[in-house]
Design brief:
- It is built from seven helices and seven strands.
- A seven-stranded mixed β-sheet has the order 3-2-1-4-5-7-6.
- With 207 residues, it is of the alpha/beta class.
- It has one domain: Rossmann fold.
- The N and C termini lie far apart (36 Å).
- This is Class I SAM-dependent methyltransferase.
- Pfam families: Methyltransf_11 (PF08241).
- GO terms for molecular function: methyltransferase activity.
- InterPro entries: Methyltransf_11, SAM-dependent_MTases_sf, Thiol_S-MT.
């Protein structure tokens, strides 16, 4: 970890992930949550204002100390108890069957082993628990021109944005990790270049 990764990149991500078009998407993905929640890739807390009243607590997984610090204002304004519970989504410090639901927003692109992280999320969900997700990744089938650009840009994007990949197949990763997708919307994010804004939003249930 260098100065760029530790002190600069979290500030860039804070701005990029807080842009106006992301807010209705965050509200939509958070709306069904209730009970005790695990959030992987908490970042700087942009989901905090959108936790519904039915959420009783949030265990946040966030590796960046500065990211957690930048979340301070949002955390202090929140009525939902949120605590930083771990640093690595690939190795969660919880017993099996701990959480009612989980939340992941624009996170699976960056975790080094996204499938391992998803298996961990599945492990700590209670029977019947769900993962609400909002992720960007590989463009839909049929958009081969966008996919070609994603493959070209992926190495540069990963270097500039802390390992963020443009080409991960979100639905396939969820299925491989033992989830069944029960709701799925795919779309291009408003205001974002298509190679960087191919989004998937939905619900996945552990099999």
């Amino acid at each position: 970890m260098g100065i760029y990764s530790e002190r600069v990149l979290p500030r860039i991500i804070d701005v990029a992930c807080g842009m106006k078009p992301t807010k209705p998407l965050r509200r939509q993905v958070c709306a069904p949550l209730k009970g005790d929640i695990l959030e992987i890739g908490f970042g700087t807390g942009h989901n905090v204002p959108f936790y519904p009243p039915a959420v009783t607590s949030v265990a946040a997984i966030e590796p960046s100390d500065l990211g957690w610090e930048l979340a301070g204002t949002r955390l202090r304004a929140s009525r939902t108890p949120v605590h930083r519970a771990g640093l690595d989504g690939q190795s969660l410090p919880f017993e099996d069957n701990t959480f009612d639901a989980a939340l992941s927003t624009w996170t699976l692109c960056t975790i080094p082993d996204a499938e391992a992280a998803l298996r961990e999320v599945r492990r700590v969900l209670k029977p019947g628990g769900t993962l609400r997700f909002l992720e960007h990744g590989l463009a839909p089938e049929g958009d081969e021109s966008v996919r070609r650009w994603q493959r070209r840009l992926d190495p540069v994007n990963a270097r500039l944005f802390g390992g963020c990949h443009l080409t991960r197949p979100v639905a396939d990763l969820l299925a491989s990790a033992g989830f069944t997708i029960t709701e799925l919307e795919t779309f291009y994010e408003q205001g974002a270049p298509k190679p960087m804004g191919a989004d998937s939003l939905g619900t996945a249930m552990a099999r």
